[in-house]
Write a structure and sequence with these properties.
This protein is mostly helical. It is built from seven helices and two strands, in the order H-H-H-E-H-H-H-E-H. Helix 1 packs antiparallel against helix 2 and helix 3 packs across helix 7.
Amino acid sequence: MHMTDVLAAADISKAVAAFAAADSFNHKQFFVMCGLKAKSKDDMKKVFHILDKDQSGFIEQEELCLILKGFTPEGRNLSDKETTALLAAGDKDGDGKIGIDEFVTLVSES
């Protein structure tokens, strides 16, 4: 499955371009701009599985820094500061990673 199976390519490109500058990433705005927030929980779970590159059932810090590249190869890596902030926003149980339910909550609350 590809990200464009769930989200419109134009929306992904627009959202990734909006956060091209270092330390500009805002997950709440990004999830709205790319159209993910408006999708069903099932679609959010599909996106989670795409972003969970190692299929561990979690998006770990190493995968979080690549989140924009998960949406499109043209995306940039998040900075350490951005990755830490995203992890803090999504990791509700404090285990250092984001599970599928935490991801759905993170997107829904955006």
